[in-house]
Write a structure and sequence with these properties.
By secondary structure, this protein is of the alpha/beta class. It has 19 helices and 17 strands. It has 3 domains: 126 residues, no CATH class; 102 residues, Chitobiase/beta-hexosaminidase domain 2-like (Chitobiase, domain 2); 208 residues, Aldolase class I (TIM Barrel, Alpha-Beta Barrel), CATH 3.20.20.
Length: 587
């Protein structure tokens, strides 16, 4: 389907009346069904795995393919040595992360330049196949490789959000799903903001969780990044702590317990904690570290300011030296989030500090802001000519509590922001507070893979894969309506109650015609429940009614929210549901 949504207004509601009489398939999906030749008999799909080296990731890729296909089609996926309908293998002539889909020996063949490249190729096979009344393997043919070198997702493993409490199996499966869309790096950080120190009773479980994220990432041949800075444990001695930052624009924040690195005792404390972190990961490995300036961090003292181009840069350099004693190939990302808000010379200072030949330890500059991308690197170039990453806001914008009313798809906003940077960035780390913004993650990962691909092209493929053939056009219109409502609400503009009710009616109709595997999946449930809760809050103005409470209770179950917690931050990631109305099921 060739979509031209960029050229249309955000909300067009003439589609509602037609969409209520859903036919089940678009013209494009129907032609795909008619023109494609079914390559599989009624009950089996045969796959040959060319893996002479017995590489574990190649075998796991077959297992992922088998699991996803069998769940959607009812087919039995068999590994065979002959008469295969699909061949999976490695072709060293391809670039490491590239894949090719072609035909050989009467079968579809998916080849990767490496095991990870094969995983991406299987992702393309799965996402571009058709899951209607009859499974139709993909007709896509060609070779693809990513433009962006670092295509990460930052999993915020804190506040008892989904990442914090989900089982190992759930986290592993979710990493697999994102890797199928091109992810090659995972970032997770030890939540020091809630810990007193390494001896805190909660430090052991938090560290174990972080180690599981690193191990799972490495099993999928993904890079594992963590974060550091000058904000560490809440138990940091008071005499070495930094003073609160001036924040007249309210853009930098003063979270956490920052330490002054210009204080010799503070510097020693910071270096020792970097060393302790590395020691605790020496057996698993850390592939990269991102150094963060603000929100949790910063120091306004005379020796450290301007923080971004002075104290922050020096601290990152010194911590990198410690980290590379343990992990010599460790990549380093210097974040500039919050620079010059208000202006105090951080961007020009960093440009001067990173003049050619200086600070060779640094690999990436990460930049972004609350709204539009910072103008300085776009107009003056990236300091030190380093590779530039972005940090798109996919979780919190217009959405409080985060995920509390369900999915928050933002394709128009993400497309607008991407258009500012797609010519220059080499990847990024979208910040995620949960699974409710899964659509946004996939859009960003595909931006990094193919800078010219639009958000709606990605979501069309996503919809056909996650919700079944024939759903894409209606889902895209539904997403547009939900984003428009969120945008108006965020700007404190009225949302038309009739529009909210009509949106829910269309979502309900789509739900009724959806295959059971899609209808029961959490990706559809968080989108459907968002439509219902929009009707309740905009259509009736009431989230206290039985229907709204039941919807939020289901969301809390999906997110594994604890019924009772003393976590002071959990309310940020929990549906606004009273504890008396929530009785979680074990998971």
């Amino acid at each position: 389907m060739q979509l031209h949504i960029l050229a249309r207004p955000l909300v067009i509601f003439c589609w509602f009346s037609a969409a209520l009489a859903l036919s089940g398939e678009s013209d494009n999906d129907q032609s795909l069904q008619k023109d494609a030749t079914a390559l599989c008999p009624a009950q089996q799909f045969r796959v040959r795995l060319d893996n002479p080296a017995q590489v574990p990731l190649v075998e796991r890729t077959f297992a992922i393919l088998k699991d996803r296909l069998e769940a959607r089609t009812g087919l039995q996926v068999l590994g065979v040595e002959a008469h295969a309908q699909l061949i999976l293998g490695i072709d060293s002539a391809l670039a490491e992360e590239a894949y090719r889909v072609d035909e050989a020996e009467g079968a579809i063949r998916v080849s990767g330049g490496s095991p990870r490249g094969l995983l991406y190729g299987v992702g393309k096979f799965l996402h571009s196949s058709s899951y209607g009344s009859e499974f139709q393997p993909t007709r896509w043919r060609g070779t693809a490789q990513p433009r962006g070198s670092l295509r990460g997702i930052y999993f915020a493993t804190h506040f008892h959000n989904w990442y914090h409490v989900a089982s190992d199996a759930e986290v592993a499966r979710y990493m697999e799903d994102l890797a199928l869309w091109g992810m090659n790096a995972v970032k997770a950080v030890l939540p020091m903001i809630t810990l007193h120190g390494w001896e805190d009773p909660e430090a052991g479980p938090a560290l174990a969780m972080l180690r599981r994220y690193a191990r799972t990432a490495h099993e999928l041949d993904l890079m594992f990044f963590t974060g550091m800075g000058n904000a560490l444990f809440m138990g940091a001695p008071s005499e070495i702590r930094a003073k609160p930052l001036p924040d007249p624009l309210g853009r930098r924040g003063n979270s956490g317990y920052p330490v002054c690195p210009s204080n010799p005792a503070g510097h020693a404390y910071l270096m020792e904690n970097m060393r302790q972190l590395c020691l605790r990961f020496q057996d698993i490995g850390i592939d990269g570290v991102s150094f963060w300036p603000y929100d949790e961090g910063g120091c306004p003292c005379e020796q450290c300011r301007p923080w971004g181009s002075n104290g922050h840069l020096k601290l990152a350099r010194d911590m990198t030296a410690v980290g590379r004693q343990y992990f010599p190939k460790m990549k380093v990302v210097l974040s500039t989030w919050g620079f010059d808000t208000p202006p105090e010379g951080e961007w020009p200072g960093l440009m001067e500090a990173l003049s050619p030949g200086r600070e060779p330890w640094l690999d990436y500059i990460l930049a972004d802001a609350h709204e539009d991308f910072p103008r300085y690197p776009l107009e003056n170039g990236v300091p030190g000519a380093r590779a530039l990453l972005n940090f798109p806001e996919i979780s919190m914008w217009g959405n409080s509590p985060w995920g509390g009313i369900g999915a928050n798809p933002l394709p128009a906003r993400l497309q607008r922001l991407w258009s500012q940077v797609r010519h220059v960035v080499k990847g990024g780390f979208p910040y995620s507070e949960g699974i409710y913004e899964d659509m946004n993650k996939v859009v960003e990962l595909q931006f990094y893979w193919d800078a010219q691909r639009t958000a709606w092209e990605t979501l069309g493929e996503y919809s056909r894969y996650e919700y079944g053939a024939g759903t894409a056009e209606t889902v895209l219109q539904l997403v547009d309506a939900l984003e428009a409502a969120a945008s108006r609400s965020f700007r404190q503009q009225a949302v038309d109650p009739e529009t909210a009710r009509a949106t829910w009616k269309v979502a309900s109709s789509l739900d009724a015609g959806m295959p059971s595997w899609a209808r029961k999946g959490w990706r559809w449930r968080v989108l459907l429940l968002r439509s219902l809760l929009d009707q309740e809050r905009f259509g009736t103005g009431n989230l206290e009614g039985a229907q709204a409470q039941a919807a939020m209770r289901e969301l809390a179950e999906i997110y594994h929210c604890p019924a009772v917690t003393d976590d002071p931050y959990h309310a940020r990631v929990r549906p606004p549901l009273s504890e008396s109305n929530y009785h979680p099921k074990p998971h």
